[in-house]
């Protein structure tokens, strides 16, 4: 897990309302496209993003399980929807309601992924924030006991609170 620091815990939510923040990746999560809104809101230039892994904007407050779940859903060819806290280049953050979908080639094989993000409601952010705090705490306690394995993470998202959260229903 990549830990990007510093973080200010200051929200950058004044810069967008009806815009959609978009990016595309290859099958391993390397950024191949970023729209202007993503550059402006995140503070990363297109050059700083293209060709780099998407975890360049990972916020350390996001629990591991959220991305494990995301990649499992995508790998099985389905769309994933989730509320995500992203880190800006300067350490501030912005919340998104992300819809990530696989892009298929003519033979039905997955060629890459596309993410379209809109601004979440305050209620969605509050719910996700509380949920992620609980998940981080659970992950931390597993890690302390040396039990944060891949299978433990899968169990955490399958049996934990993530599946039950209304803001996290799959698209
Ligand atoms: C199309 C697409 C968009 C993504 N968007 C984000 C994003 O906005 N922020 C983020 O932290 N991870 C995003 N990810 C997930 C990252 O690839 C990565 O799994 C995540 O940041 C966790 O990083 P880690 O492997 O260092 O824990 C995206 C993945 C895909 C396929």
Summary tags:
single chain; 171 residues; alpha+beta; Beta-Lactamase; five-stranded antiparallel β-sheet; 5 strands; globular; binds flavin mononucleotide
Structure description:
With 171 residues, the chain is α+β, with helices and mostly antiparallel strands. It has a single domain (21-159), classed as PAS domain (Beta-Lactamase), CATH 3.30.450.20. The chain is 33% helix and 22% strand. It contains five helices and five strands. The chain has helices at residues 36-42, 46-49, 64-75, 122-144, 150-159, and strands at residues 21-25, 31-34, 80-87, 93-104, 110-118. It has a five-stranded antiparallel beta sheet with strand order 2-1-5-4-3. β3 and β4 (93-104) form a beta hairpin. The longest helix has 23 residues, at 122-144. The protein starts with 20 loop residues before the first strand and ends in a 12-residue tail after the last helix. The site of flavin mononucleotide has 16 residues, from β1, β3 and β5.
Q: Mean pLDDT, nearest integer?
A: 91
CATH homologous superfamily placement? PAS domain
Bound molecule types: flavin mononucleotide
Q: What is the number of strand segments?
A: 5
Question: CATH topology, which one?
Answer: Beta-Lactamase
* Approximate strand percentage: 15-25%
Oligomer: single chain
Q: Using the coordinates above, name the CATH class.
A: Alpha Beta
Q: Helix count, per DSSP?
A: 5
Tell me, briefly, the overall form.
globular
**How many domains is the backbone divided into?**
1
């Amino acid at each position: 897990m990549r830990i990007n620091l510093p973080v200010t815990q200051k929200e950058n939510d004044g810069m967008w309302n009806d815009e959609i923040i978009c990016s595309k990746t290859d099958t391993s999560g390397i950024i191949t496209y970023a729209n202007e809104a993503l550059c402006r809101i995140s503070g990363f230039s297109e050059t700083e993003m293209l060709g780099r892994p998407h975890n360049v904007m990972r916020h350390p407050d996001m629990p591991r399980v959220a991305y494990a779940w995301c990649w499992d859903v995508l790998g099985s060819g389905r769309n994933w929807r989730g509320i995500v806290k992203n880190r800006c280049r300067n350490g501030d953050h912005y919340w998104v309601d992300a819809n990530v979908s696989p892009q298929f080639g003519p033979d039905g094989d997955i060629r890459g992924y596309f993410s379209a993000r809109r601004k979440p409601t305050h209620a969605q952010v509050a719910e996700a924030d509380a949920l992620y705090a609980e998940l981080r705490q659970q992950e931390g306690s597993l890690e302390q006991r040396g039990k944060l394995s891949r299978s433990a993470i899968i169990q955490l998202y399958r049996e934990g609170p993530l599946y039950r959260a209304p803001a996290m229903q799959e698209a």
